[in-house]
């Protein structure tokens, strides 16, 4: 039986979860359609999801369409939970992008579609809520073409818009307009089709055109558009038929080498870790030993495979399927898994070590997850990536913005890192327990939450005894607070959120400290040169010394400390993209006084290199110079026309850069850029400025150099920028 792993994506409130319910009802998985308002849906199982009527965690539910098993992944629409969407993208074969017929294309819709297109995930569009007042039908297709993608085609016509009787009628072989529209669209990617049509238009049958439409949809070249209503059920039958016809379902290679990708981790009732795995090839059975994250191995103790609704206990899971695995205690989101006997290791996010002495230099390249398979049909090897033609690499380190976003975890070298399809969190806050006695328990609880959402980026300030978490928005605070109280019995408070900036290098800088040469108190020679690198390229560490010039453990200590040092640049912000070359190396060989045992005071250790490297790095960074960049949002603001002047004045005070407004008689639209730090302030001011009649949408767009006072972040290390202070902490002396 073929399998299709299908994602349902949308802007918040477009009706995504309601559509999921309607699809499950239509295929017979449920007997009654659940309601988001009543909190009775299948995929929104968290108490807070039911209370607020929004999806927070991605959920998987399975059903059959003829001979195809569809694993449907319902993802959050709220931008605060975009990390959940990101984790799902790497395991999808296809997607349905849901758009409201009333609101049309919204900020999050653009972000999602841009990412789906870049990852070449086959996507059909479903225009929902035809029954609502103000709904638009075929006329909305022009908006889709202008704002989302030019390669869209309406698959039918609508009727009785804005009423409970609103319907969708699919085009057929007698609709010549649809036939010509298919020829026009498909010929953009098929010159032979155009030549055939020019020579003899009758040679192109309707069935042949539908076949080519399916082929190009499966290659993510075109995007068919369906219309309907999840509430009334209109158009959902046609959508199901379209999913079966147009999106790629595959058999998978059940007898191939084991390869899978972990896209979700949760804890069971007894606290046991449960990994959600998409299988790309091979078969995993209970009691099999698996390898992940390089050298970690564990035995699978139980398997539940998604099928006909929920996950059912099974003895094995095969290629194409999604399953829950028990027994992998050290597993993390983003890990690729393989059989212990043939998995050579590698992790997402590691950087390469390059050397002039290439013979025998062990490469540790990003995404070298052996055995992970591509989502492209027929690809036996490669990464858990949806990118066409990608043979290797566990996941793309691209971000959601083509104009400067920093992909999440890019280049961090962290095991189990994530792919960075979207922008990283732009806010952070300090979290603290209400009861001081809960401090230790809070750390344990936050560590478990970080397993489920690595992008909260736990950051500990041991100097000030504070814990930071990263956020996409203020709603995340409520989710974390509710989860900690409900699941762990810990009440917490948050400080006001602050914006997360980054630093970029201005130029090239170098520094060196020599062994046994004052003022270097360490038995080590370290020379480093830092250079700017392209946006989103991550951190690359390379050697310009012979690999055998000193023990590899010392080189590894320098590399690891370089990555740690780049988490806090000259102004305290992370430097996500740069190249670091090791230009000098040296050490004191193992030795001791005559007739005595080994004396580490006379011999270099890895600790010497770990302690010296931050000083050299900071000197090199200061020589290069850095600029602080702040995150910018692109916004669209709908306001009463008579309030335009007051709103423009407020935008100016908030350092926004608006474009020329589109003025109309009663309602005007403003678009432009605004610092992420000012979005929340704008939201607070708008009700008074617009009599509560404004609609604001915003999404991360890029990073921009800070103008005005340079923001700094308090350091959480021993401050290698201040040599005296640093040595006092490290050596307990100056």
Automatic annotation (TrEMBL):
PROSITE patterns: G_TR_1 (PS00301), G_TR_2 (PS51722). Residues 345-397 have a biased composition (Polar residues). GO terms for molecular function: GTP binding; GTPase activity. GO terms for biological process: ribosome disassembly; translation. Gene3D superfamilies: 3.30.230.10, Elongation Factor G (Translational Gtpase), domain 3 (3.30.70.870), P-loop containing nucleotide triphosphate hydrolases (3.40.50.300), Translation factors (2.40.30.10). Residues 1-253 form the Tr-type G domain. This is Ribosomal protection tetracycline resistance protein.
